[in-house]
Design brief:
Number of domains: 1
Strand order of the largest sheet: 1-4-5-7-8-11-14-19-20-21-22-25-26-28
Strand content: over 45%
Number of strands: 28
Largest sheet: 14 strands, antiparallel, barrel
Helix content: 10-25%
C-alpha cells in the first residue's frame, strides 16, 4: 500500500494503538435519564441541579463508538458467528459490502474511559461535580470514493474499477485525517436560577483542564495524482498540511507511556461546556407544603416536570501540540515514482517522515499545531407520559462551519428514546438517525449501580448491513434522596414559589 496510502494506514494504526488504552463520550438514552447523575453532565451540564441524588459516583465507565459510511458487514454472518471462524476464500467479497454510491467516504472512532467522578448536591438549588475522563477520537473525512476504493483493494490489478482508475488523472482536494487522545479533568457547577409557579429554570457550566497525550493530522489542500499501475505513482502540484507528535514515532517501538506524555507533547488547555434547562411543572403545588409553619420543598426524590427542554454547547476550545521532528507540511510534484523501491525500517512512521523529507518539498517551519476539540450543539426535549414512563428527543449536532486545519469531532445523531425510568431500574430504547443518514436501534439497561447498553446494537436484528458499533458500560455508587415525610396535621399547599 504505497505512498500516500501508507501514511493514511500508519496514522490509522497509530490511532488504534492509542485507543487500546481506552476501551467506551456520550450514552444515548441513558444520558437523559432522571437518574443519570454525573453521567448526564457530558451532554447537559445543568442536569445535576435539583437532581435525585445526594451523591452520585461513577467508579468506572467505558465506551466505544465506531461508524463509517463505506464498508459494512453483513449482519447474518455476525449472528451465525461465521465471520469469526476461519474462512477459505475472498473474505472481503463474502463478508463485507462496499457502498459505491458515495460522494465522500467518512470514518469515525470515538472511545473513552470514565475514571472516578462524582456529583454532589450542595443545597436544594446548587450541585457540583468533579469528572475525569481519558478520551480519544479519530476522523477520516471527505475521502474520495476513487482513493478509498484503491486503498480498500490494495491497488489490486484484478479489480475492474482499479483498471479504470490506472492511467487516469484523479483528484481529492478535501481529504483530511484527524486523531487525538487526551486527559480531561472537569469541574461542573449547576444551579437553579428561577423557580416560580409552573416554570423552573436551571443552568450549568463545566470548566475543563485538558492534557494532550498525542495527536496527528493530515489534510490535502490539493491532491492531483495518477497511478500508472499498482507500483508507479505521479503526484502533480499537490499540497499537504500535516503534523503529529513525536511520541507517536516512539509508539511503534512499544514505548508509549500515558503518564510520561502529560505536559510533554502539548500545552495544558482549557475547554468549556455550558447548558440550560427549562421544566414545565403544571402540578407544582404538589411539591410545596408548609410544615410546622415553614414552607418546605424537599421532595427531592421525585421527578416534578411534565415537559423538560434543554440546550447545551459542549467542548469549546482547542489544544496546542508540539510537532514531531519531521512532521511538517509538504508539497508533492513527482512523476513516475517507483513506490515499490521505497524501503521502510521497523519504525514505519519514522521511515515515512524521512522519505517525505528526502523526496518531497518541505513547506513550513512551524513547530506546533492546534487541534480543536469536538465542539457540539445539543437540544433535548423530555415528556413525562405517565408516572415513570417518558419519551425523549435529543439532537447532537456537530458544526461543519469551522474553517480550521485540524479538528476531531463526533458524529451527529438525532434520537427518540422511550424509557421506563424508576429509581433503581431503567429501560431505554433509543431509535434514531446518525450523521451518515443511517438508522440506528439501541437498548440500555440500568440495574441499580450497573449500566450497560448500545446505541446501535439492535441493528443486527433489523438491518442487513452493519456500518458501526456503539457500546458502553458504567459502574456507579448512587446515593438517592429518601422519600419526603409530612405531618398530616400541618400540611397545606402553597400558592407559588
Amino acid at each position: 500500500m504505497p505512498g500516500l496510502m501508507i501514511r493514511i494506514a500508519i496514522l490509522f494504526e497509530l490511532a488504534l494503538i492509542t485507543t487500546t488504552i481506552a476501551k467506551a463520550q456520550d450514552i444515548p438514552g441513558y444520558n437523559m435519564s432522571n437518574y443519570a447523575g454525573v453521567s448526564g453532565i457530558d451532554i447537559q451540564p445543568a442536569s445535576i441541579a435539583d437532581m435525585r441524588y445526594k451523591l452520585d459516583i461513577t467508579v468506572v465507565g467505558a465506551g466505544i463508538d465506531f461508524n463509517n459510511n463505506y464498508i459494512s458487514v453483513y449482519s447474518k454472518y455476525i449472528l451465525d458467528k461465521s465471520i469469526f471462524q476461519t474462512y477459505q476464500g475472498n473474505f472481503n467479497a463474502h463478508f463485507l459490502s462496499e457502498n459505491t454510491s458515495l460522494q465522500n467516504v467518512e470514518v469515525g472512532l470515538n472511545t473513552y474511559v470514565q475514571l472516578p467522578s462524582i456529583a454532589l448536591s450542595i443545597t436544594r438549588d446548587i450541585s457540583v461535580a468533579f469528572t475525569c475522563r481519558l478520551r480519544s477520537l479519530l476522523n477520516i473525512d471527505n475521502l474520495s470514493p476513487q482513493l478509498a476504493h484503491l486503498m480498500y483493494t490494495g491497488l489490486s490489478t484484478n479489480d475492474p474499477s482499479n483498471l479504470r482508475y490506472f492511467n487516469t488523472s484523479l483528484k481529492d482536494n478535501t481529504f483530511s485525517f484527524n486523531q487525538m487522545s487526551w486527559w480531561e479533568y472537569g469541574i461542573d457547577y449547576a444551579q437553579v436560577i428561577s423557580s416560580r409557579g409552573h416554570h423552573f429554570f436551571k443552568m450549568g457550566v463545566r470548566g475543563k483542564l485538558e492534557a494532550g497525550l498525542e495527536a496527528a493530522f493530515l489534510k490535502a489542500q490539493t491532491l492531483n495524482y495518477n497511478w500508472k499501475n499498482n507500483d508507479t505513482l505521479s503526484l502533480y502540484n499537490s499540497t499537504f498540511l500535516q503534523g503529529h507528535t513525536e511520541n507517536l514515532v516512539k509508539d511503534l517501538n512499544g514505548n508509549f507511556n500515558a503518564g510520561k506524555s502529560l505536559g510533554d507533547v502539548s500545552a495544558i488547555s482549557v475547554a468549556m461546556d455550558i447548558g440550560f434547562v427549562y421544566e414545565w411543572r403544571p402540578d407544582y403545588y404538589d411539591w410545596g407544603y408548609r410544615l410546622r409553619g415553614k414552607y418546605r420543598n424537599d421532595k427531592r426524590d421525585l421527578n416534578k416536570y411534565k415537559i423538560r427542554l434543554g440546550a447545551s454547547l459542549l467542548d469549546i476550545g482547542f489544544m496546542s501540540f508540539q510537532k514531531g521532528d519531521n512532521a511538517y507540511n509538504f508539497n508533492a510534484n513527482k512523476t513516475n515514482w517507483d513506490v515499490n523501491a521505497l524501503r521502510f525500517g521497523p519504525n514505519k512512521l519514522y521511515s515515512l517522515d524521512t522519505i517525505i523529507a528526502n523526496n518531497l518539498g518541505r513547506a513550513d517551519t512551524r513547530s506546533y499545531f492546534h487541534m480543536y476539540f469536538p465542539t457540539t450543539f445539543s437540544l433535548q426535549a423530555d415528556y413525562n407520559i405517565y408516572n415513570d414512563l417518558y419519551v425523549n428527543v435529543t439532537t447532537y449536532t456537530v458544526p461543519q462551519f469551522m474553517n480550521v486545519t485540524s479538528q476531531v469531532h463526533g458524529l451527529s445523531y438525532y434520537t427518540v428514546t422511550p424509557r421506563w425510568d424508576y429509581k433503581w431500574f431503567g429501560f431505554f430504547l433509543p431509535v434514531g438517525v446518525n450523521g451518515y443518514g443511517q438508522t440506528t436501534f439501541g437498548m440500555t439497561l440500568r440495574l441499580g449501580p450497573l449500566i450497560v447498553g448500545t446505541g446501535n446494537g439492535l441493528n443486527l436484528l433489523f438491518t442487513n448491513n452493519i456500518y458501526g458499533l456503539n457500546a458502553y458500560a458504567a459502574l456507579k455508587i448512587p446515593i438517592l434522596f429518601e422519600g419526603s415525610s409530612k405531618s398530616k396535621k400541618d400540611v397545606c399547599p402553597t400558592n407559588g414559589f
